[in-house]
């Protein structure tokens, strides 16, 4: 929902309109009379691209000419979402475009709905990479983002009879107009086979890898436009194809048709994004994906380096920084070693010196089941030479620094080893990252402390200075300026027009937080956003919700540690109390959920079903007079987040303390004036440090309390001691919410009582309920609420991803920004 207020230059509108019409006719091949919405969108993109590609060339020429140091951000996921409105915003052309389309009788928001989300990521980690690309471009840092050109992004979620059904997401079925293919930069990647030991004439041993197949990597470039567009960053995504050598045996045998079948194997590699975001399945194809994109990216980096430095690698580490976004790209470490030793002829020592100065690693999760460990046998089959190098790295590490620090201590060696011994020997990817990297960082203060003290305590003894923190951030261009135009205008008025480049400027709103006039304006903006969301909810869920009600929102991946079921238990208790006393004076509330579950995560899917079942019952119960509504918005994704977040009153951030590394939606909600109802976990701690604990609703056990309680925790104690809690937990066992299907929700009760309630839902229930009661009370005091919402929004300056990126640039990459010459 976008307001048309500011005045726009008439001549610019006319020129833009002519450009769109020209593209409609000459690029798309249609006319204004018969163009579909999709065609209009394509013509709009073609118009925007005229601006972008010129700037991209300028950026690349400047960097090439100055031979600048650059960062290479390796990530298996980039959750870009839609690009049209964001690019128009960053080019400061949005208002012009909107007016131009209006003259054709078109609504720009309506046209931009044609764009499929680029959903090449699961959640937090992937969206963070996308925000970082925006900030890298905006802050003019030389960089390349490297990832995988998945044919299918994260699955599209449908809800049928309350249950999640996964459907393929073909985001570029009809072509993506933002991307350009770069055939001149294609790479060939070897795979499989065996290693042959050879003895050189001087008696030294060397290894020769004879791969069994070859895969082609085709790069697709997506330009990322910085705000007020001086530099354009580049996101390079690799698509796998078959090579003629893919399996030469089949060809040699004259098996032309069989070879076509073989072809699909190579093309499988970039077919689909793995939808797991917490449990490592150890699938061979996934390791192949990781290796494939890392190998392509490193060859690309080496090719560019050698253009100016030829075969002199002495400056490699001073020109190139590589950031590993979690352990997914870890295989890049042995691959760089291999390229330098086997292909460039460097010694092991020279290669290690370069490699260990080039890499840095960001950890995004402490969940043990999410830490990647690959069976050695998979390495033997796919990457035998890399395995050999990993053994060598490990041997030198254990017999060097570890032996020096803990002489003769085998227990220490087995703890710190890259290889986990056992029935199935495994490669611990995180250990390889820590041993190799210059810096290891967590993503919020508390998380970084836990990474250092609980996850890698022994490494921290060895290298205390390796560990650091960079608190996450989000781009205010997408998460305020593009998605909340009303709030953006308010900031233009009170903070001047530069706040999107310096979010600390928003603090200016604080001094108006007591003024009725500004409170009214702030809450009017929120109300308009809620009206728009209510319309979307009606369309997507068929449920009528009242924009005057309190909008309480929890949108994120579904996981037990995020505790959507704690929220659900509270809703059930609220419903129960309303049934007991339908006339009680409570604030009307709408509980809004959005969440995808990993397809094999049964309990997560059961929780989705439970939310839908409870919602169905509550929404249709006339006895409670519409005081309570529960909606589950299907297929939560970036473009929906942009509609939901600006309309939230309360942001639910209720993970068990110690489990959410940072969270990033918590920042987006606060910026847009929602109050956080949350635990002292991840970046929530830093949010309330900025906005004040009195302006949010903090509850639950702290990290220390969780650590203390966990070993002696008995959920039955809480169940038996709290009547209300017992009643709602037992309710799950009835068929009240699932008529004719008793037991349909029992797995949730069972996880809480028979499976030990691993995330302490029952322990935090009473405190959670109390926090909700405080929130309801404050919501009745309109002035108090408005003030708290304004203070939250005004104090989020440090959560701009520009701040995060500058932290990385200064403390980790030693990277300077570069102004672009036109
Ligand atoms: C190994 C594989 C199954 C896998 C595990 C975990 C794949 C993906 C993940 C997702 C994790 C790493 C993730 O997204 N973590 C989130 O990163 C965000 C950005 O730093 C944090 O804000 C968020 O708290 C964290 O859960």
Topology:
Elements lengths: L9 H17 L10 H30 L3 E5 L3 E4 L2 H7 L3 H10 L4 H5 L5 E3 L3 H15 L4 E6 L7 E5 L2 E5 L12 E2 L5 E5 L2 E6 L5 E6 L2 E13 L6 E11 L5 H5 L3 H13 L15 H26 L6 H4 E6 L6 H12 L4 H11 E4 L10 E3 H7 L1 H22 L4 H7 L2 E2 L5 E3 H8 L3 E3 L2 H11 L1 H6 L4 E3 L6 H7 L2 H11 L20 H26 L8 E6 L8 H17 L8 E6 L7 H18 L8 E5 L5 H7 L5 E4 L11 H7 L3 E4 L5 H8 L5 E2 L4 H7 L5 H7 L1 H9 L14 H8 L7 H20 L1 H13 L6 H13 L9
Parallel strand pairs: 1-4, 1-13, 4-12, 13-14, 14-18, 18-19, 20-21, 20-23, 21-22, 23-24, 24-25
Antiparallel strand pairs: 2-3, 5-6, 7-11, 8-11, 9-10, 11-12, 15-17, 16-17
Helix pairs in contact: 1-2, 1-4, 3-19, 6-33, 9-11, 11-12, 11-14, 13-14, 21-32, 22-23, 22-29, 22-31, 26-32, 28-29
What is the compact description of this entry?
This protein has 33 helices and 25 strands.
Structural account:
It is a single chain. The chain is α/β, with parallel strands linked by helices and 822 residues long. Among the domains are: 8-66 and 83-116, no CATH class; 477-701 and 761-800, Glycogen Phosphorylase B (Rossmann fold, 3-Layer(aba) Sandwich), CATH 3.40.50.2000. It has 33 helices and 25 strands. The strands form 6 sheets. Strands 1, 4, 7, 8, 11, 12, 13, 14, 18 and 19 form a 10-stranded mixed beta sheet that branches. A 6-stranded parallel beta sheet has the order 22-21-20-23-24-25, sandwiched between helices. A 3-stranded antiparallel beta sheet has the order 15-17-16. A hairpin with a 5-residue loop joins strand 16 (419-420) and strand 17. Helix 11 (332-343) crosses helix 14. It is globular and about 95 Å long. It binds ligand 26R.
């Amino acid at each position: 929902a976008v307001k048309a207020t500011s005045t726009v230059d008439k001549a610019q509108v006319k020129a833009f309109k002519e450009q769109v019409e020209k593209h409609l006719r000459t690029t798309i091949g249609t006319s204004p009379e018969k163009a579909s919405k999709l065609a209009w969108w394509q013509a709009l993109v073609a118009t925007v691209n005229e601006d972008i590609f010129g700037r991209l060339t300028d950026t690349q020429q400047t960097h090439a000419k100055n031979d600048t140091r650059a960062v290479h951000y390796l990530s298996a996921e980039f959750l870009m979402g839609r690009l049209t409105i964001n690019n128009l915003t960053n080019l400061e052309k949005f208002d012009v475009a909107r007016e131009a389309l209006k003259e054709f009788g078109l609504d720009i928001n309506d046209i931009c709905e044609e764009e499929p989300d680029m959903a090449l990521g699961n959640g937090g980690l992937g969206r963070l990479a996308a925000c970082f690309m925006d900030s890298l471009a905006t802050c003019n840092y030389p960089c390349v983002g490297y990832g995988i050109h998945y044919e299918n992004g994260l699955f599209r979620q449908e809800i049928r009879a309350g249950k999640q059904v996964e459907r393929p997401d073909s985001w570029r079925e009809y072509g993506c107009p933002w991307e350009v293919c770069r055939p001149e930069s294609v790479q060939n990647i070897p795979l499989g086979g065996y290693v042959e030991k050879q003895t050189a004439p001087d008696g030294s041993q060397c290894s020769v890898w004879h791969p069994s197949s070859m895969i082609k990597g085709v790069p697709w470039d997506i330009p990322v436009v910085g705000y007020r567009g001086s530099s354009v960053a580049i996101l390079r995504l690799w698509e796998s194809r078959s090579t003629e050598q893919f399996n030469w045996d089949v060809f040699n045998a004259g098996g032309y048709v069989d070879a076509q079948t073989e072809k699909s194997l190579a093309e499988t590699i970039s077919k689909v994004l793995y939808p797991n975001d917490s449990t490592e399945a150890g699938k061979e194809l996934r390791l192949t994906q990781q290796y494939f994109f890392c190998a392509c990216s490193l060859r690309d980096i080496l090719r560019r380096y050698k253009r100016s430095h030829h075969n002199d690698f002495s400056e490699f580490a001073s020109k190139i920084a590589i950031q590993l976004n979690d352990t997914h790209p870890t295989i890049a470490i042995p691959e760089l070693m291999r390229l330098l030793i086997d292909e460039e002829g460097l010694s092991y020592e020279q290669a290690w010196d370069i490699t260990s100065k080039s890499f840095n690693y960001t950890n995004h999760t402490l969940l043990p089941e999410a830490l990647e460990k690959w069976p050695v046998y998979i390495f033997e089959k796919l990457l035998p030479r890399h395995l050999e190098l990993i053994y060598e790295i490990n041997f030198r590490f254990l017999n060097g620094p570890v032996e020096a620090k803990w002489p003769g201590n085998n227990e220490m060696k087995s703890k710190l080893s890259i290889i986990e011994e056992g029935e199935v020997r495994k490669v611990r990817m995180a250990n390889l990252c820590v041993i190799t990297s210059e810096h290891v960082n967590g993503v919020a203060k508390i998380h970084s402390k836990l990474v250092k003290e609980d996850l890698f305590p022994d490494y921290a003894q060895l290298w205390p200075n390796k560990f650091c923190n960079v608190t996450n951030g989000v781009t205010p261009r997408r998460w305020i300026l593009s998605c909340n135009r009303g709030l953006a205008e308010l900031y233009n008025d009170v903070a001047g027009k530069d706040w999107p480049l310096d979010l600390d400027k928003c603090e200016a709103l604080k001094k108006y937080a007591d003024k009725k006039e500004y409170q009214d304006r702030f809450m009017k903006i929120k109300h308009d956003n809620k009206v728009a969301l209510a319309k979307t909810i009606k369309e997507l869920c068929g449920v009528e919700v009242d924009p005057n009600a309190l909008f309480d929102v929890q949108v994120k991946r579904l996981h037990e540690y995020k505790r959507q079921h704690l929220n659900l238990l509270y809703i059930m208790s609220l419903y129960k109390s309303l049934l007991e006393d339908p006339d009680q004076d409570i604030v009307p509330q709408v509980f809004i959920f959005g969440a995808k579950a990993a397809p094999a995560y049964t309990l997560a899917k059961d929780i989705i079903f439970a939310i839908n079942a409870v919602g169905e019952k509550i929404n249709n119960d006339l006895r409670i007079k519409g005081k309570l509504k529960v909606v589950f918005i299907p297929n939560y994704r970036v473009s929906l987040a942009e509609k939901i977040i600006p309309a939230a009153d309360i942001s639910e951030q209720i993970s068990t303390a110690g489990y959410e590394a940072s969270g990033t939606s918590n920042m987006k909600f606060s910026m847009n004036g929602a109050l956080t109802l949350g635990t002292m976990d991840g970046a929530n701690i830093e949010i309330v440090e900025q906005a004040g604990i009195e302006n949010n609703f903090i509850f639950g056990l702290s990290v220390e309390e969780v650590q203390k309680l966990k070993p002696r925790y008995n959920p039955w104690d809480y169940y038996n001691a709290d009547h209300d809690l017992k009643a709602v937990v037992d309710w799950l066992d009835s068929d009240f919410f699932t008529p004719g299907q008793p037991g349909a929700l029992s797995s949730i009760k069972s996880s809480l009582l028979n499976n030990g309630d691993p995330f302490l839902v029952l322990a935090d229930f009473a405190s959670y309920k109390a926090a909700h009661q405080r929130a309801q009370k404050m919501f009745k005091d309109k002035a108090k609420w408005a003030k708290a919402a304004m203070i939250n929004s005004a104090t989020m300056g440090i959560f701009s991803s520009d701040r995060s990126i500058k932290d990385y640039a200064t403390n980790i990459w030693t990277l300077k920004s570069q102004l672009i010459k036109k």
